[in-house]
Design goal:
There is one protein chain. The chain is 83% helix and 0% strand. Helix 1 crosses helix 2. It is an all-alpha fold.
Length: 77
């Protein structure tokens, strides 16, 4: 998979989650009789997606770092 295709796939994935989350927040607010504007739900969904992606990036970075450390550290057996 090329880098450009990977970026496009990532962007589409994030956009799809963002739209679904925004729609879910809007429908939940309407169902609970506390409707918010669709714009407010879109903004909230964008914030939640950004936090989720940052958390996923941090998790991957920590996993890579610990895996690299395990490979370079000699075992003490």
């Amino acid at each position: 998979m090329t880098a450009r295709r990977r970026q496009r796939r990532f962007a589409l994935s994030v956009a799809a989650w963002w739209m679904l989350l925004a729609l879910g927040l809007w429908l939940l607010g309407t169902a609970l009789d506390q409707p918010a504007s669709l714009a407010a739900c879109i903004a909230s969904a964008a914030l939640l997606v950004a936090i989720g992606e940052a958390g996923d990036w941090l998790r991957r970075r920590i996993t890579r770092r610990s895996a690299r450390r395990r490979r370079t550290t000699p075992s003490r057996h």
